[in-house]
Every structure is written in structure tokens, then in C-alpha cells.
Amino acid sequence: MSPAAVASQDTATSSVVEQSVPNPVYLSTEPGPEFDWKISLRGKVIAITGANRGIGLGLATVCLANDALEVYSLDLFEPGEEFQALANANPKRLHYLQCDVTSEETVIQVVDQIVERSGRIDGMIANAGMTKHQPALNFDRPQLEQLFNLNVYGAYFCATAAAKKMIELGIKGSIVFTASMTSYRPNRAAPSAPYGGTKGAVRNMAHTLAMEWSQHGIRCNSVSPGFVRTAMTYYVERASDWNLKMQYYGGMPRLADPKELGGAYVYLLSDCASYTTGIDIPVAGIVGAW
């Protein structure tokens, strides 16, 4: 084939490709003239994965305190007394839907349920996760798969299911991922290379999806907590060398209450963050500063 024929063929192919890709229709996130500049979740329906306890329950508490219309906890396990107490204090505003976030089909079904019950979904916090602290050479393949299935694939399934529904409904929604300071630097107090790897993936995922979905008015961000007091971490500050380890970090020498993270999430979920997308907010008591 002659060079001219090749060039002609390439041009024709390029023309076909260009014609087959429609120009994107951008759904602006710009506030309208009647915009309420108060940071609030008033009227919003928020889904939080893993909100029956720990960080997720703390986030649910703060979302409700900031006037969220309804909060749904998507969790694999039945809720306990703390969740029930919060539900009793917020009648008809806090709900539990059983969900295995590692199953994409299940996640899609649950997001559909939320919309069937509440008519909309405005925010998704992809928070469910797990960690395992041990030397890297001690991890076997099943342990690695368990971490990545929950922390990475689960977060991805939740984000994509929520985004598809938001696009379908024309909602300029917000998706917030729970990353970790271990996505920036090693955790000397409790090292876990695979866990840090999963959270690095989550943080990058948030940035990339922010770029892809901005045309639909959907914002994607992440929050990176430092040391947080949960059922999985309470023992850390009881270790005999805790104070010594905190000297290395140079941060606040304590674990955070899960609710202390809530302000960052509420901001990112709120309409006041209409021009905030593709970022990570460290909430870590200065842990992680270089």
C-alpha cells in the first residue's frame, strides 16, 4: 500500500472516530442566584458504607447534625446499640440497608432501593474498609485479596453505582472516599504495606473520577484520616511505646474521635463545595506532615 493510500485511510478512520463521539453535555456545578451559602446538608439524602459503627457511624452522626434529610448505612452486619440510639434520636432519618460492597450487583440494588424509598441520592461516602497490620512478608494471597476487594473494589462499585444513578436523575451529587494518611507515608505505629497500597489506589481513584464526571456536575474527593479511635484501633494508644511513637510523628498525641472527621465530609458533600473536586483533605492532627 502506498504512503498516500495509508494517509488517506488514516484520515478516513480519524473522521469516522470523530463523528462517532458526541460532544459532552456539561452539567454545571455553578451556584444559582438563589444559592444558600450556609454549609449544610439540608434536603440531601446521603449513603455511607460501613456506617453501623466506627468512622462511618461518626460520619452519620455529623451528617444528621448538619441537617441531612436522610442517611443510609450500607453495611454487611446488623447494627448495634450505638446505631440504634442514633436512629432513635433521629426518627425516620437514619436507615440501615444490608449490603456487601464487594458485590457490584448488590451495591446497584441497594442504591436503587435508596432512590425508590427517598426519591433521590445526593451523596455517597465510600467508607467501608478494613486493615491488617503485619510485616509485608507475612501476607498471603487470600489476605491481600480480602483487603483489595473491600477497600478498592468496594469503593469503586459504590462510587460508580451512585454516579450512574445521579446522572440518570440529573443530580449534581458528591462522592467522598475515605482514604488514609498511609496513602502518603508509612504508618510507623502499625505498618501495613498492602493497606497503604489500597488507600493510595482510593485517593488516586477519587482524583481520576473527579476529572471524568465533572461534565455531569458530580464532584469526587477523598478524606485521609490519621489515627482514629475505633474498635479496630483502640489498642494502639494503650501500647507501652505509644508516647515514643508519637514523638516520631510530632502530631497530636491521641486518637481522634470519629466525629472529628465529619466536618471535612460535610463540607465536601455540601453545595458550598461546588467548586471543590479532585482533592484529598488530610484530617490527621498534623500526622503526616513532612
TrEMBL record:
Species per Swiss-Prot/TrEMBL record: Periconia digitata
SUPFAM superfamilies noted in UniProt: NAD(P)-binding Rossmann-fold domains
Record key words, sorted: NADP, Oxidoreductase
Highest taxon of source: Eukaryota
Protein family according to the UniProt entry: Belongs to the short-chain dehydrogenases/reductases (SDR) family.
GO function term, MF aspect, one: oxidoreductase activity, acting on the CH-OH group of donors, NAD or NADP as acceptor
Identification of the protein by name: NAD(P)-binding protein
